[in-house]
Design a protein that fits this description.
Length: about 110
């Protein structure tokens, strides 16, 4: 079974773009979805990942700060890594239901 993943970048601030728009992988393997970004933020910021099926709105997966650890992923098989110019969403043990459009987004951390 081959799965197709679409990746889109949502610009909340500065710029973020997917490295590849179409990614194919087999069930049971793992896939890496990359987004490159640039920002002028000098404080903490977050890289967010969402999944969207054809029939609904975006669903939050996780976010990771440029400094620190990830939030608890909505799905245990998902994790993220961040460096100064890119973020990657790693999905392990791929399942048919992972076939979707994945969105990456960049947002400044706010303190309330």
């Amino acid at each position: 079974m081959i799965k197709q993943f679409f990746v889109s970048g949502d610009v909340w601030a500065d710029s973020i773009q997917p490295k590849d728009y179409h990614v194919f992988a087999e069930e049971g393997t793992e896939v890496y979805l990359y987004c490159n970004y640039s920002t002028t933020y000098t404080t903490a910021y977050y890289l967010h990942w969402y999944r969207q099926y054809d029939y609904g709105g975006p669903q939050f997966i996780l976010h990771k700060a440029n400094k620190g650890s990830s939030s608890k992923a909505a799905v245990d098989r998902f994790e993220s890594e961040v460096n100064s110019s890119s973020t990657v969403l790693i999905i392990t043990d791929l399942k048919l239901e992972d076939t979707a459009t994945y969105h990456c987004a960049l947002a400044e951390a706010t303190v309330r």
